[in-house]
Amino acid sequence: MQNLKDKRIIFAGTPDFAAVHLQALIDNGIKPVAVYTQPDRPAGRGNKLKPSEVKVLALENGIEVRTPENFKDETDVDAFKELKADICIVVAYGVILPESIINACPFGCINVHGSILPMYRGAAPIQRALLDGQKKTGVSIMKVAKKLDAGDVYTIATLDIEDSDTSGTLFDRLANLGARTLLEALDGIFAGTLKATAQDEALATYAKKLTKEEALIDFTKTAYEVELKVRGLSPWPVAITTLDDVKYKVFHVQAVNEDSNTEPGCITKIDKDGILVSCSKGQVRLVTIQAPGKGQVKAADYARSKKDEFTIGKKFG
């Protein structure tokens, strides 16, 4: 790695995924001249303002933090330019950058995106890849462009999606992969040896933001599709199902390649491993669930404690 410590770098990011990349820079002696992150947002039951993970990390390391809502105010654009940065690194920032910011640095703005571009442009590439049953995903280092995630790509690193992966575990794995790939790419970008290539627009797909409305499990899908939904919506917004108008969060299921003759959504068996529910093809075993106002529990234990509510033939959803 060439000496990047002398480069003036701005870092823009907000959640944990971005904080992993900022930590990697710091660990390698690369201290940004400033960090941009979203303003503190209300969070938790008390709705108290909470700083982003990136802000917390930056302040712990004595890095200046800036939190404009956007760059519509020219004074914010001017303040950005006054930093005279060589490059701006953007990771899950969540703020649209105008061309005045994109073009402010000699080496431009580069973005770490959690997909194999041009597939899964947009807000939820990691979750959508898992929900769609993809077997492989990755990170792309690209130039920031005016059109969403459509910039020229410097490099792509890939990894296999494991059968046990949830969106949470994929976030962690891709964050670490992205941090390593970013450091390698910075060398080539500053040296001029790493060239960016245009994306193939014909292959572009869009990964729209997740919503709570998507959380309801549809047992008329196949068992494998139900399993993908549960994994893809963990840790947020978490898949849900209802029984007797009681809403249950579902954190872990297992697809079972065994058809039943019952209507999709019906309980076919309750054993020590969980609650078996029929699907259009195969069945799913509910392994870990959460009732309203309760903590996560083994579905088998909960069903045994509520024998009158969980009976064979009863239907979810």
UniProtKB/TrEMBL annotation:
Keywords: Protein biosynthesis, Transferase. GO terms for molecular function: methionyl-tRNA formyltransferase activity. It catalyses: L-methionyl-tRNA(fMet) + (6R)-10-formyltetrahydrofolate = N-formyl-L-methionyl-tRNA(fMet) + (6S)-5,6,7,8-tetrahydrofolate + H(+). (6S)-5,6,7,8-tetrahydrofolate binds at residues 115-118. SUPFAM superfamilies: FMT C-terminal domain-like, Formyltransferase. Residues 8-186 form the Formyl transferase N-terminal domain. Its EC number is 2.1.2.9. InterPro entries: Fmt (IPR005794), Formyl_trans_C (IPR005793), Formyl_transf_N (IPR002376), Formyl_transf_N_sf (IPR036477), Formyl_transferase-like_C_sf (IPR011034), GART_AS (IPR001555), Met-tRNA-FMT_C (IPR044135), Met-tRNA-FMT_N (IPR041711). The keyword Protein biosynthesis applies. It comes from the Bacteria. The keyword Aminoacyl-tRNA synthetase does not apply. Residues 209-306 form the Formyl transferase C-terminal domain. It holds the Pfam family Formyl_trans_C. Attaches a formyl group to the free amino group of methionyl-tRNA(fMet). The formyl group appears to play a dual role in the initiator identity of N-formylmethionyl-tRNA by promoting its recognition by IF2 and preventing the misappropriation of this tRNA by the elongation apparatus. Belongs to the Fmt family. This is Methionyl-tRNA formyltransferase. It comes from Succinivibrio faecicola. The gene is fmt.
